[in-house]
Amino acid sequence: MQSAADPLSRVFHALADPTRRAMIERLARGPLRVGELAEPFAVSRPAISQHLRVLEEAGLITRTPQAQWRLCTLTPEPLKAATDWVEEHRRIWSGRFDALEDVLRSMPSVHSAEGALDPQDPAPQDGDPS
Known about the structure:
three-stranded antiparallel sheet; 5 helices
């Protein structure tokens, strides 16, 4: 699989997988050895290594040698960048929806227009003259 070019895309790619999100949640409680981190997941060791590689390439974890083990540690800075991006776009879309709501409120009501259908009335059937 080809790696995304920009850091933010790599973070969102890493977060797209539920196993990797669960790994991040476990690492949020503190560093773990690879074996400890892998314990609850019913996947092969090579699959765990692949997940860890994706997380590491996204900058979300670091793996450091500690005696005969490799210790995984969460690196939260890339999560902050992703959160900032989401919040910025949430504000933009919230503003757009607020503006749309204002426009819709300023429009005459469809229900008050002459000849408008009452939403409580059943839809006319084929061949029904009403």
